[in-house]
Design brief:
single chain; about 325 residues; alpha/beta; D-Maltodextrin-Binding Protein, domain 2; 2 domains; 3-stranded antiparallel beta sheet; globular
């Protein structure tokens, strides 16, 4: 109730401050972490910098295209640029858009994961060689004689990369078989069920996600560094005949702005350049949203009230005072 009331008061309180930087449009992407960041940007830009900030619906491809071709919206708070790499590069080269910082400072993180309580009991499970010694700890749901590896859902790009790495690591020779989770909900549900029962689970997952905020999981060390060229050549290519052992390279996740917004002034760009979340913090925020069935605006208030030491480092003291006053 406090958060809902605060939302109503926020609308009433911003009108008098909205002349300093004019109207700013912010892409409210259709996944939780991006929507949360968009709401945080709106609040801080309005309360701290006097903008008239407006959220507009967005997704990766449509938002990037619109910013490049139409100059709107002004800000894409969380753009996974690997998905639109060529278009973004062209937009930057042509002076239509700019990178201004990493919204996820660790980058998007992918890997093969297992519960920390198993690693506490069997320290060798930190490495893939240790995992291959213990297929019996990860019973396949349809074949009790085999170890189960939960793959990414069918149709997702990560199904290809995880399958290629399964083959490169020769997990089948170690006694493992792939498990098709059926969907994202099936994948997260299998992990949650195993964790809450204290059972074995081994599979693909990514961050930031609510599930890795709720459960203490360990990413398995493959013993090699990420080779981006190899990832593009084979790891991520369907049907690659000769996959090699490779680590997942971090996915760059940027805040991108239009050139027109970039020309409005360095103060706001300074904020956006500093504003970034670790995967650990974002995992916790997404888990809170899921547990509380909260929307992105609720989570924005929760973040600003609970993590002042994080967001105050993004802005000058005078701006932080204005944001606190509005809260």
């Amino acid at each position: 109730m406090k958060l809902k009331l605060a939302s109503l008061l926020m609308v009433a309180g911003f009108g008098a401050q909205a002349s300093e930087c004019g109207t700013v449009t912010i892409a409210d992407m259709n996944w939780n972490s991006a929507s949360l960041i968009a709401n945080i940007d709106r609040f801080i830009l309005e309360a701290g910098y006097g903008c008239d900030a407006e959220l507009v619906p967005g997704d990766t491809m449509a938002t990037a295209t619109s910013m490049i071709e139409k100059g709107q919206p002004d800000i894409a708070p969380e753009l996974w640029t690997n998905a639109v790499q060529e278009a973004v590069k062209k937009g930057v080269d042509e002076g239509r858009i700019d990178y201004v910082g990493h919204s996820l400072v660790d980058g998007g993180e992918e890997g093969f994961w297992l519960p920390a309580y198993l690693v506490d009991k069997y320290p060798e499970l930190k490495t893939i060689e240790g995992v291959k010694q213990h297929p019996e700890l990860f019973e396949h749901p349809e074949d009790p004689e085999a170890g189960g590896f939960y793959n990414c859902p069918a149709g997702w790009g990560c199904q290809i990369s995880a399958g290629n790495l399964f083959n490169a690591l020769k997990l089948d020779e170690a006694g493992f078989k792939l498990v098709d989770p059926g969907s994202a909900a099936g994948l997260s549900g299998s992990l949650a069920k195993a964790y809450e029962r204290g059972e074995g689970w081994f599979g693909y997952y990514w961050a930031p996600t609510a599930i890795l905020g709720k459960y203490n999981m360990v990413k398995v060390d493959f013993g090699v560094k990420a080779d981006k060229e190899e990832y593009l050549r084979c790891t991520s290519v369907d049907g690659c005949p000769d996959p090699k052992v490779n680590a997942y390279p971090p996915s760059p996740v940027y805040t991108v702005v239009t050139k027109e917004f970039a020309n409005k002034g360095s103060d706001m760009l300074g904020y956006l350049n500093k504003r970034g979340f670790t995967n650990a913090d974002m995992n916790q925020l997404l888990a809170w949203m899921e547990d509380e069935q909260a929307n992105s605006e609720d989570a924005m208030f929760y973040f600003l009230e609970t993590y002042p030491e994080v967001w105050k480092a993004w802005v000058p003291a005078s701006v932080a005072e204005k944001v606190e006053a509005e809260l």
